[in-house]
Every structure is written in C-alpha cells, then in structure tokens.
Amino acid sequence: MSGNTNREIRVLTVDDSASMRALLHATLKSRGFEVEQAEDGAEALEWLRENQVDLVITDINMPRLDGFGLIERLREGRVHEGRPILVLTTESSDSKKARARAAGATGWIVKPFDADKLTTAIRRVTH
Amino acid sequence: MNAAPPSSPVRLTILQGEAKASADPAVEMTTILGSCVATCLYDPLAKVGGMNHFLLGEPSGGSASARVDGDYGLYLMEVLINDMLAQGALKQRLRARLYGGGNLNPDLGAIGSANARFAREFLRKEGIEKAFEDLEGTHARRVDFRPATGQVRCRRIAETAAPTQKPQARPSDLVGGVELF
Fold first, then answer.
1. What are phi and psi of A89, to 5 degrees?
2. Is B69:B166 a contact under the CB 8 Å cutoff?
3. Of B71, B77, B178, the CB nearest to A117
4. CA–CA separation, A36 vs B104, rounded Å?
5. Using the 8-state DSSP alphabet, how is residue A15 labeled?
6. pTM for the complete prediction?
7. Which of A10, A88, A106, B112 is the right S-S partner for A84, CB 3.0 to 4.6 Å?
C-alpha cells in the first residue's frame, strides 16, 4: 500500500463546509495522511496554539476568520512562520491568488480538487 | 416608494453547470429542468438570492449503486454559496428551495432522483434550511426566480420543451490545478 509512505504527515484542514470536511477527511485518510480538522480560521488558530502539524490546508471564504486572515495570523507568530500552508478554494481570481501569496501562502489549489494532484502537492511542500 | 417596479425583468438564463447570485430587483433568473436539479438560495435579510443548475453523473470509477459524482456537486454548491457571500449573504441565514430531478429519460434510469438525493443531503449536512422542494416525478419544469425577493414560480412544462440533458463531466483540465508559490 502506497499509503504507508505518508504515515507521519499530519495535515490540518480548515473549511466551514461539513461536506467538504468529510470529503477531505476521507481522501487524505485513504492516502495515509493523519488528518485534523477545523471549521474556520478562528478555530484553526486556537487549535494551532497547542498543537503541531506538518501542513495546513485552508479554504478562503469562512466565517469569523477567513483564509487570508488565518495565513496572516500564522505568519505573524514564530511558531508557524515556516509552516507550509496550501489554499484550497473555488476562487480563481488572480487578485485573490496574489493576496494569498502576499500573505504567505505556500500554494494555491483550485476546487474541485484532484486527489492525486493534491497528494503530490502535499508531499512536495512537506518533504 | 417612488420607484415603480420595472416593467420587464432582466432575464438571466441559468444553464447546466452554472451558478449565479444577484441582489438586483430587476433580475429574474430562469431555467428549464428535466432531470437536472436547480437550487434556489435566498438570504431574506441581505435580500440576495442565487441559483445553480446541475446534473451529476455517476462518479468516475463507475459505481453500481445509484450514486452521483457528489464531489463535483459539492463544488457547484460552493460556487453558488460563495457568490452569495460575496454579495452580503450569510450562510446561516440561507433558505433553500429545490426543483427538478424529474426521471423523464428512461435511458438515464432514476438519475433525477439520484440528483435530488444529493441536493437534499447537501442541505442537511450543511445545516441549510430547506424551505420547499418540488423534486422528482416524471415531468419537466420551468423555474423563474427573483433573487432580490426570493420569489419562485415553478411550472410544469411539456417534456419536449426540456433540453435533452446528459450528466455533466467535470471540466478536468480546469480543476484541481496546483500552483506552488
């Protein structure tokens, strides 16, 4: 099983959609990743105060704290300044992509995601 | 009220695979549904409405059960919701009305029902209130939706008036694109 190669990689997914969280959980688990989940940027930030992950995958449009805000806040602190953060979004506008990049995102992935491409991207940014 | 209601609406046709939102009182969204399902979402406080229109096929990989490609459906729902949020709507205020999902093409089996099931299940999982549904059956429908007021008119129409619709494949060249900075 190829999944074993990913066993130690721990991913936090941040998305306000329960359906999307379920889909990401099933997809990433099946690829052998360890998966943690938060419902929005604020919950993710709180969880990351006391926990460590190898990678954060975040949506953009979320209540309380959106994806841009989450990236900015994580880059402000020392603990997560080098943490890879992938944006996973339905947004395709160049201005939003540029804003994510300026905030410190590591990459931009367009929904609906392709499981193979997502897995490859996770491996590349966490190697 | 000084402004008289506009005499003729600005008509927006929502085609399969599309999602649009608007707060313009002059806009009327229209769609013709056979097996396809249309979701009309409305935020009564922000007075923003939106509609999508989809016909999901079986997931690639071919499952024997009457399942549809929910991953792609999820995407089409999210595009609609995000468009509404961008115009001031809040997810927890959204109310949904579902239309279509007729099983009128025997060659496609009960694909209308499978799409209707996906839509109901999505709303349930997301905690979006379903205000109304007119789904399944064996007839075609025409839906007219005023996004600024949330008013919907749904009429049964002759089966021959509905376009012959095939389940939609994901536009694979466009999706899942990865760009590392």
1. -150, 160
2. no
3. B178
4. 43
5. -
6. 0.85
7. A106
Min Cα distance B161 → chain A (Å) is 32
Taking the C-alpha atoms of residue A25 and residue B116, their distance in angstroms, rounded to an integer, is 24
Query: In Å, what is the CA distance from A97 to each residue of A42, A109, A125, B86?
Result: 21, 10, 18, 16
Residue type, position B16, single letter: Q
DSSP states of B59-106? PTT--SSS---HHHHHHHHHHHHHHHHHTT--GGG-EEEEEE-----G
How far does the CA of residue A104 sit from the closest CA of chain B (Å)?
A: 9
Tokens of A71: 């990236």
For chain B, the residue count is: 181
Q: List domains and CATH numbers for chain B.
A: 10-158 (3.30.1330.200)
Which of B29, B33, B36, B135 is catalytic? The answer is B36
Question: What are the φ and ψ backbone dihedral angles of B102, each rounded to 5 degrees?
Answer: -70, 145
Please give, rounded to a whole number of angstroms, the shortest distance from the CA of A117 to a CA of chain B: 7
In 3D, which of A99, A80, A88 has the Cα closest to residue B78?
A88
| Residue B36 falls in the annotated catalytic set | yes
**Exposed/middle/buried for residue A72 (C-beta within 10 Å: 0-12, 13-18, 19+):** middle
Whether residues A90 and B78 touch (CB distance < 8 A) is answered with yes
B181, A87 in Cβ contact below 8 A?
no
- Reported as a single tens digit per residue, the pLDDT across B30-62 is 999 999 999 999 999 999 999 999 998 876 544
Candidates A88, A90, A122, partner chain B, best to mutate (most B CBs within 10 A): A90
Those residues whose C-beta lies under 8 Å from the C-beta of residue A75, and which sit 6 or more positions away, are A81, A103, A104
Residues of B in contact with A111 (CB under 8 A): 75, 78, 175-176
pLDDT in tens, B100-152: 999 987 776 788 999 999 999 999 999 999 999 999 999 999 999 999 999 99
